[in-house]
Amino acid sequence: MTTPVIELREVSRRYNDGPPALHEASLTVRPGEAVAVLGPSGSGKSTLLNLVAGLDRPDAGSVTVEGVRVDRLGEAGAARYRRSKIGMVFQFFNLLDDLTVTDNVVLPARLAGMARGEADRRAAQLLETLGIDRHARAYPGRLSGGERQRVAVARALMNRPPLLLADEPTGALDTAAGQDVSKLLTDLNSEGQTIVVVTHDLALARSCTNRTVRIADGRITEDLMSPAVAPEAVR
Ligand SMILES: Nc1ncnc2c1ncn2[C@@H]1O[C@H](COP(=O)(O)OP(=O)(O)OP(=O)(O)O)[C@@H](O)[C@H]1O
Ligand SMILES: [Mg+2]
Predict the structure, then answer these.
(1) Domain count within the chain
(2) Which residues approach ligand 1 with their CB closer than 6 A?
(3) How far apart are CA 151 and CA 130, in angstroms?
(4) Within 13 Å of residue 35, how many CA atoms lie on the same side as its CB?
(5) CATH code of the domain covering residue 26
(6) Which atom, in ligand 1's list, is nearest to the CA of 168?
(7) 40 C-alpha to center of ligand 2: Å?
(8) What band does 228 get if pLDDT is binned at 50, 70 and 90?
(9) Which of 11, 122, 130, 177 fits 61 for a cystine, CB–CB 3.0-4.6 Å?
């Protein structure tokens, strides 16, 4: 058995005096899997993603990603961890509007210490692969939603992270742009990229993932391999 990319063991998180945002959630994700996390608003999906990304800490349980105990990292360690292990894509792109597309994309690599020339070359290559190289010098404000999300995906892939996390990546896009992003995630996964995507978009879940995890009231209630994929292909 390969080492899991993600190993959550009985992870709980509660904010203030509210009900648990996440309650004893256990989840193992193996290399090459594409997992959709589905559930109603407020069910704990983003909480789960934030814990995996080291943006938040659990009150109980352990979060291990690529062998790193994420729940035990301090602030600097968590930042380093995110730079090297995680690519993140959000609903509203989170691009820096006063940087060009290229400068947005190279940023994670520059923070990780990659030389400018090498970072620029990799960014150009990613932008070309994602079909947005003609916007390399533009500012994100001039781009469509779908194009901005491609830039965000390029930025997320810049440091070749073993794990790509996406929180509602099609949530702000129209159907056609959503399908483009969905196709992009499917292609990345078929090249071996491990992906966890939180979504309300069933079409996205169906087309680009081979496993579906459902959350309700902070609990994992269902975890299904898609029947189209042979179980040995994802173990
Ligand atoms: N930083 C926070 N402070 C206080 N409460 C929070 C915080 N983050 C999340 N919560 C609460 O935890 C619960 C789970 O929130 P979470 O954001 O994980 O839901 P979600 O499944 O991502 O919902 P949505 O589909 O609307 O994005 C909610 O009740 C939410 O109000
Ligand atoms: Mg959310």
Answers:
(1) 1
(2) 15-16, 18, 21, 39, 41-47
(3) 8
(4) 26
(5) 3.40.50.300
(6) 27
(7) 9
(8) very low
(9) 11
Of 90, 9, 108, 6, nearest to 52 by C-alpha is: 6
CA 22, CA 235: separation in Å to the nearest integer? 26
* Residue 122 placed within a domain: yes
**What CA–CA distances, in Å, run from 73 to 46, 81, 152?**
19, 8, 25
Phi and psi (nearest 5°) for 172? -110, 15
Q: Which domain holds residue 87?
A: 6-234
Please tell me the predicted confidence (pLDDT) of residue 203: 87
The answer, yes or no, to whether residue 177 has pLDDT greater than 70, is yes
pLDDT of residue 26: 98
The pTM for the full model equals 0.92
Q: How far is the CA of 151 from the centre of ligand 2 (A)?
A: 21
Indicate which ligand has the atom closest to the C-alpha of 45. Answer: 1
pLDDT at 235 over 60: no
> Residue 29 half-sphere exposure, CB side, CA atoms within 13 Å?
30
Please report the atom of ligand 1 found closest to the CA of residue 218. Answer: 14
